[in-house]
Amino acid sequence: MKCEIYTDRKYKKYFNKDVAARRISGAPFDKDALDVDCVDSGLVAVDIKNGAFGIFDKNDSLVPSSIQLRGKSGQFIPRVKNLDVADSADQAIFLGNIYPHFGHFLLEHLNRAWGLGRVYKKGMKAIFIDNKNIGAQKFVFDFTDMLGIARSDVLILNKSVRFKRVYVPAQSWVTKRRANTDFCKAFDAMAENVPDYDMGNKIYVSRAALSAEMKVYGEERIQKIFEKNGYRVIYPEKLPLAHQAAIIKNAKCLAGCGGTALHLALFMRPGGRVIQIKRNSGVKDNGPIQWMLNTVRGLDSVFIQASVEKRVTEHNSKLPQIIGVTKYMRRFFDDNGFKYDAGDLSENKSAQKSYDVALAAASAATGGAIYIKFKRFLIKFVSCLVPGRVRRGRVRAWMKERL
User: What predicted TM-score, i.e. pTM, was given to this entire model?
Assistant: First the structure.
């Protein structure tokens, strides 16, 4: 798959280094079929107190394929002997644990859903584990509906249950490590299950309708340039998930600022193109993850540096972000035959004024750049002195709330 990068050398160096590390880590885009383990008298173990979970066999030995890897790390594993266990005569398929963030859930918590096509039948329980007792977001059920799972078959478990049989599909996506082509099977199935809704083959996903804390200043002008060149603009948060999937599955080009909305490219058909606009001036962003997603889906990638912010931010930031027609974006427009006029290139004074107000307010609330760096260093330093992953996590969370 083709990858074009319209950025400075510093970002290219970061991007290429990160991508190279992903390639070295294994076979990132393995086409070999994955396995589904069948565990008779399988125990779905949940320990809310420690946020631990796992699947165990009839001898109470951990099933290795149930470890929920994220990078090199897996979840906390419970001690079975300390748990109260209920019994069930049902068969079940283990799909992982729930997570409150849509983008992370999409990539890291639907990575076993490909196995539904192999073993799921109506009446079988489809299990997500709520190991932190946070409750399931609506999008969890939106996804299971599109996957064709009856609501009565979806179980969100926050307690331990031993089932007659538990199927454990292997993870098809591990962030920063690998992705298997089977990962796309669940999204193919969902795309087939949603009604057709064709808005054309060029779609721009906008953040402009998000709350002030999440929107990107200056984006409206950028998306208007894309509109002039045949793109239809959608605001994903205003549409049902099935509607979003129906639109994007017909797209050949998907554009927008870096973030969760572009992960919906998983619903596209192979051979398309994803254009990601870099909205932060800090070097690191989610570009390598989007590249990994695009590659396993069979899509070309384009990355464009567009931040014109005054204070450097990371990809995820409490500070506001602003984009404009940088020299990198103009080069992309020219290389791809985009039409634009002089007004599109002038300084966006209205957006800049709004950004300045938001930046002043955010800076007053979060402290200066030096304080933020010191805060990160202090949290990392103190937590490293605490023994045990569970304790370290609790200390980090406590310090983030209070500093």
Answer: 0.91
